[in-house]
Amino acid sequence: MSGMLKEIVGAPDRHDLPGGVGVISWAPEDEPEFLAEVAERERARVELQRRGIVHGSWAEIRTDGLCDVGAADIHAWRQRWADARPILLRGMLDSTLPGFAPVLKQRMALHKTIRDEGALDGFLEASLERLDPRFTVRGAEESARLGEQAGGDGQRDLERRFLSFDTDGDAKAGPNYWVKTQRLSDHEEDMSARIRLSFGQEVDDDASHDEAGHRTIEQLGRELLPETALLRDNRDLLTLLGELDLVEEAAEDSDSGNPAPPPPSGEHYFTQDIAFWNAPNGGVLMHHDAFDEDYNERQRGVVYAQLSGETAWLALSTQELAVRVTEFVEYIDEGEMPWLKAALFRGHQGATLMRKILKGGRFVYAELEKPGCGQLSRIVNRGPEFTNLLADAGHAFLMRPGDVLLMPNHGLGHTLLHSVFCASPEPGYSLSMAVRRAAE
Ligand SMILES: [Fe+2]
Predict the structure, then answer these.
(1) Structural domain boundaries of the chain?
(2) What distance in Å separates the CA atoms of residue 407 and residue 86, rounded to the nearest whole number?
């Protein structure tokens, strides 16, 4: 045995998830001794491809005896929550619950027609008997008019319908609620899609602190996507969130001497539902889900659940990604993987970017705060070289049906960055929701 596997997995700067399962990258041209070591410990292997770009091959392996990461217990999760690192709860959901199989069947059928005109209306009609009569679905014309005001991603949006919610006989009192279908990319072979629920103006209201609005979306989510109850009514998940996301004491406002408004301290709830179909050749580029918003009232994170199919993930904190980007560019600067200098740092602009990264300081962090990682976007999405570097540093994992992922968020500069690939030959179905905290 060459011991190379132990060198990678046991490296002091590798950060495996607890639980004795890890992911490493491999290539057919690797040393036979190394490939034999991998094969001996292998649980699964996956070829990564996203939007036509090959990101290499990963193996999921048993890591016992190679590294000491400890048990997947509350102490480990608390530290990871505080560090804005991923919390993977394997097999948390019981997708064998009665009633779940027919819903999944409907969702897979919906995915097949979601790009056809009228698919969203069909989905809404099929849910009408569960829908609170206080909701009124607006027609196509009115939705188009409201859609012009609310903004959106014209290129990837498929269809959108607005709904009003009648409170005390006044349907105009609340914000506009909406449901839309979207593609995830423009790539021809990527059949990934999603349904998204939210309210108000796109972008501007994505981080809304209007709890009544979020609570109405929560209700709409329960009625349109009843499978979200697997998360929403999951006592274990809610208890864990309560144990991880501790509420700070209300601090005094130092200028006025008055106590600052208390942070929300009630139960966690889930809002702004997204139902995803991650299809082969699809996935999501590196990004975070944080906003520039008040710390106390912030979105506490995002919860993701895999209900069918498999996905492959890279997920790490802002701080960890900053370290890895710098390390990667240092390698390139030293002349390793020489083709990368031409691919990522071409010309005068490229040289300037490289210099800024190598200088250290605030630049890398500031770019990682931006949507899609700003000027670092091509680096953090570079496969297979950067993808493999992250996997070998312990930032990769696979998700299977029943697995739940908690993505902590402590604000723009201290959050979880993540990138997703489809890892199954068929499209997989999953849910993701924003985690918020109720006012007491
Ligand atoms: Fe995300």
Answers:
(1) 4-72+317-392, 100-245+260-310+400-437
(2) 5
